[in-house]
Amino acid sequence: MIVTNDKRYTIGVLVQNVPGVLARIVGLFSGRGYNIETVTAAETNEEGFTRITLVTTGDERVLAQIVKQLNKLVNVIKVFDFSETEFIDREMALIKVRAEEQTRAEVLRIVDIFRAKVVDVSPHFYTLEVTGNEGKLSAIIELLDQIGIAEMARTGKAALARSKK
Amino acid sequence: MKLKGAQIFFECLKKEGVEVVFGFPGGAVLDIYHEMAEHDIRHILVRHEQGAAHMADGYARASGRVGVCLVTSGPGATNTVTGIATAYMDSVPMVIFTGQVPTPLIGDDAFQEVDIVGITRPCTKHSYLVRDVNDLARVIKEAFYLARTGRPGPVLVDLPKDVIQAEADFKYPKKVDLPGYRPTVEAHAGQIKKACQLIAKAKSPVIFAGGGIITSESSEELTRFARLIQAPVTCSLLGLGGYPATAEGGKRPDPLWLGMPGMHGTYQANMALSHADAILAVGARFDDRVTGKISTFAPKAWIIHVDIDPTSISKNVEVDVPIVGDCKNALQQFIEVFEKEPIPRLTEIRAPWLGQISEWANDHPLTYTPSQEMIKPQYVIEKIHELAGERAIITTEVGQHQMWTAQFYKFDRPRTLLTSGGLGTMGYGFPAAIGAQVAFPDRLVIDVAGDGSIQMNIQELCTAVCNKIPVKVVIINNTYLGLPRQWQELFYEKNYMGSCMEGSPDFVKLAEAYGAVGLRAERPEQVEEVLRKGFSIDAPVFMDFMVAAEENVYPIVPPGKSITDMLLT
Q1: N or C: which end of chain B has fewer CB atoms below 10 A?
Q2: In which domain, by residue range, is A153 found?
Q3: Rounded Cα gap, residues A122 and A115, in angstroms
């Protein structure tokens, strides 16, 4: 077995919203052999700026290089390295789960416990909306998987640093 | 008054002080070519777009100004990619203008359409697709600014045909507004202080200088500082000329000069790096050809690393004192510190270290076995150095001749060696020499080439002849691709698969066919005569030197080995 010091890191990137900016960032990762586990990108409250959240794996040296390489891109305004700060992260998942007569109650109980929402109902399936951090999402997915997940779409993480107290 | 995009293009070039464009026309850029005659800008018509990119590169490296090339869409654009990647790896300021199909056709696989911005994204410093003629002036301003500032590099601007045909008010922006781009020029005083403490304590320091010394025009500061603290200096391939190799007008080697380090570096440079207790790296990036096996590189040294590009620091080698900033600025700060507070008893402290280095240098100097029968390639390089004069600009292709040039030509001045170090592009040297000659029409510009490399962009001989650009090409002709053959001899059981170049054209006749001058030397006693004659002709000259075919470059550090594991003969 290969022993590695690889860890998961969450990185926030504030970029100018210009054509091709996401390609520059994703291309940087693929070209230099860095991993991307999840990536989310959407506009911010300020016009012309997009906030990207990336989850990557690597050792500390790789992380340091990633942060520096991202900063080097001309369209990147700021890089937030969450390995050094406390941060809040959330992810949303839409999960279509089998909901037959005998499992419906169990699904609703899980929905309740995890503060999820049923957003679509059909004779055989419920579609749930769940929001939470990685741990919460893995937990509910594991439970629902035993009942039978038909389809699932996850957004990937969005993250912000905690405000200083 | 409204101007057409093509007119705005030239107005911007004028504002940037561009005097020459290396280019090749095609459908997508004909509006620009149509406009060109109205403007006072020299156009060098190349014979292949790769040549245009290397010429702009050679022009930029020789002069320090931004090199410009202009090509059409599709194949015109893709042909520049090797030239762009070459410039990117070696931090050369260049702006590449490519034509593009009209914006409504982009994405439809139109004739001669290619996503050149996408293709070159990993090998440009930045790139633009101009979608609106109103953005054109701003984009060109930004492109030149990005190309020449910070760690310089190539910037590509893609120009759709309808954009250069459209009209807009022309106003050249006074300033650029790039909130994501603020290179750190001023080195942090606290880090400088930390570095100075290490340097002051060091008994066996080495300065390792790279291309950043040339780019930042700080060879004077480097030289002054090295002498101030009596630290020996080694320069990477791209740094050669940043510190003078000789002293007293070439009479003897400079006492602090170690030569180039690494795979084909000198014995003393590799030994010094490996035994140093402190290494001050300035504007170098610890390329694998320099470090050899990384885990055994400079085991005893504190490493201080100055670079304007933070990604270069602690990328390959773990650095103890990182200093982000311009080399010139950092060196000036170092000089100030040590001029104010000189190292006490410096001569005495440094004596054992400098003594050890001259011992290494005497034990295993750069050498070769001279011959009365065969022309030795190293001899040709020594003769070029002897005859060319200190203002000559040398370019090289890539291979054995390049390494012999780095070893046996004594570079005393910055911007006198132009060579593809990072990408290792065969076919670079000849067009780069043309570009350098355009920048300096009165200087002797010599491309040292191999018989393999020269054939990679030989079509540019026509460019040289037609534009009366009197570059000199020295072909070190061993009828092999020398470095692959050497590796095959040493590491692949002499299986010379694919490395034999027999059947090459007669370079003398070929030169004549193009309207240039061709000369040949087959015996050692003809070398000087051919060089003298070739250098004296005011026209492009090919000089074909039939050299010892199986001569090897020594020392060589076998791939994957430590730099102390040199094969010396």
Answers
A1: N
A2: 90-161
A3: 21
Number of neighbours of residue B566 by Cβ within 10 angstroms: 21
Q: Is pLDDT at B357 greater than 90 in this prediction?
A: yes
Q: How many domains does chain B have?
A: 3
Given this model, what pLDDT does residue B250 score? 84
Token duo for residue B353: 């270290």
**Per-residue pLDDT averaged across B302-318, rounded?**
96
Q: How many CB atoms neighbour CB A131 within 10 A?
A: 15
How many domains does chain A divide into?
2
Helical ranges in B307-345 per DSSP H = 327-340
Which of A84, A112, A127 terminates a domain? The answer is A84
Q: How far is B403 from chain A (nearest CA, A)?
A: 29
Residue A164 pLDDT grade (very low, low, confident, very high; cuts 50, 70, 90): confident
Same domain, A13 and A75: yes
Q: Looking at beta carbons, which pairs linking B524-532 to residues 24 or more positions away fall under 8 Å? A: B524/B371, B524/B372, B524/B373, B524/B374, B524/B375, B524/B376, B524/B379, B526/B375, B527/B375, B527/B379, B527/B380, B527/B383, B528/B383, B528/B387, B531/B380, B531/B383, B531/B384, B531/B387, B531/B474, B532/B387
Domain end, chosen from A68, A84, A100, is at: A84
| A151: CB partners within 8 A, 6+ apart | A95, A96
Pair A54, A26: CB distance under 8 Å: no
Contacts of A19 in chain B (CB under 8 A): 129, 131
Is the pLDDT at A68 greater than 60, yes or no? yes
Instruction: Return all residues near A14 (Cβ < 8 A) that are at least 6 apart.
Output: A44, A49, A50, A51, A52, A76, A77, A78, A79, A80
pLDDT of residue A2: 59
Q: In this structure, is residue B562 part of a structural domain?
A: no
Residues A66 and A98 in one domain: no
- Whether chain A has a CB inside 8 Å of the CB on B310: the answer is yes
Q: Within an 8 Å CB–CB cutoff, is residue B503 touching chain A? A: no
**Tokens matching residue B352:** 């054992």
What mean pLDDT do residues A144-160 have? 96
**Are B354 and B408 part of one and the same domain?**
no
Q: Which residue has the tokens 């919460």?
A: A136
Answer yes or no: do A15 and A77 share one domain: yes
Q: Is B174 exposed, middle or buried (0-12, 13-18, 19+ CB in 10 A)?
A: exposed
SS (H, E, C) B222-287: HHHHHHHHCCCEEECHHHCCCCCCEECCCCEECCCEEECCCCCCCHHHHHHHHHCCEEEEECCCCC
Residue of A nearest to B129 (CA): A19
Residue B409: C-alpha distances to residues B18, B61, B428, B443, B527 (Å): 32, 18, 19, 17, 16
* pLDDT at residue A3 tops 80: no
Report the candidate in B99, B69, B75 with the shortest Cα–Cα distance to residue B87: B69
Shared domain for A12 and A80, answered yes or no, is yes
Q: Which residue, among B195, B530, B491, B161, has the nearest Cα to B330 in the 3D structure?
A: B195
Q: Do A20 and B117 touch (CB under 8 A)?
A: yes
Which DSSP symbol is given to B343?
P
| Residue A75, domain CATH | 3.30.70.260
Q: Tell me: pLDDT of A1 over 70.
A: no
Structure confidence at residue A5 (pLDDT): 78
Peptide bond into B555 cis (omega under 30): yes
Alpha-helical regions (H) of B64-168: 75-78, 81-89, 116-120, 136-148, 161-165
